[in-house]
Design goal:
116 residues, 4-stranded parallel sheet, alpha/beta
Amino acid sequence: MSAEKPADRGAESAPSVLTLVRGRADRLRNLMRGLARQTLPPCELIIAWMQPEPAPDLPDPGCPVRHLHVPGEPMPLAAARNRAAEAARASQPPPSRARTGAGSIRSPSFCVPCAR
């Protein structure tokens, strides 16, 4: 799994989108397709995988994707949420240079954003 750096948005402001996944690859694909339809895409999508391997054949969400593997049984929700949030914070500008509105959005994989 490779990690990509978030895109430089210049003067525009866009959040990181974080999602936790275990199974439900079809719902994750719908989330990614919804992100691709946004007029201002997120600066990145961070997927915290709570399963051994990421799902195959994921669509392009229109932004860089970072994959994190979070091991644990039965389902390490808190650990996955914290790892994704830490990764998003590491990719955001320092507070002295923060752009208005930048931050992170936690989205369940079953939520599909509408085009805006």
